[in-house]
Amino acid sequence: MNFVQDVVISGTGLYQPPHVITNAELVEAYNAYALLQNEKHALRIAAGDMEPLTPSSVEFIEKASGIKQRYVLDKEGVLDPHRMRPRFAPRGDDELSLMAQIAVAAGQQALQRAGKQAAQVDAVLCAAANMQRAYPAMAVEIQQALGRSEEHTSELQSHHDLVCRLLLEKK
Fold first, then answer.
1. In terms of Cα–Cα distance, which of 153, 143, 158 is closest to 96?
2. Nearest to 111 by CA among 5, 9, 7
3. Could you tell me the end-to-end alpha-carbon distance of the chain, in angstroms, rounded to an integer?
């Protein structure tokens, strides 16, 4: 049997975080952060032991990256000049990981678009650059949350953002 000829991807899903951060918002937060850091390290900067952080601009971000806005799970933490990163509540090993939760939302969308039920999923493939924990494997978490605990899973830790695909039906 040639596996490639027997597989159909009949639906795809995409999770989009609920909050938007514009470049103007990010620049305002970063510039406040840079000012705080430069004040904190003023003696080292004056002694030449450390370079000061330079302010940014909307134009610089757009020219360097082409990005005008980004979607995030936690806007407040990212825009807090004292933090500059999201706040996520810790989750126990017996709880669905945040990344698996995101993948399940995308998987449910894929099932809906394909007009399929979780019982029709033959395999869950998952690739991620970072994981909340090594065990249980995220692909296992995803398949269980979708209602498929006895089927095949495959997980690959990669250098790309979270990518999860559901192989929804065989020909």
1. 143
2. 9
3. 12
User: 89 is written with which tokens?
Assistant: 């509540």
Beta strands in the chain (DSSP E): 7-8, 19-22, 69-72, 123-128, 152-157, 163-167, 169-170
Q: Give me the count of residues in the chain.
A: 171
Q: How far apart are CA 131 and CA 50, in angstroms?
A: 33
pTM of the model: 0.76
Over residues 35-89, the pLDDT tens digits come to 999 999 999 999 999 999 999 999 999 999 999 999 999 999 999 999 999 999 9
The answer to whether the peptide bond before residue 52 is cis (omega within 30 degrees of 0) is no
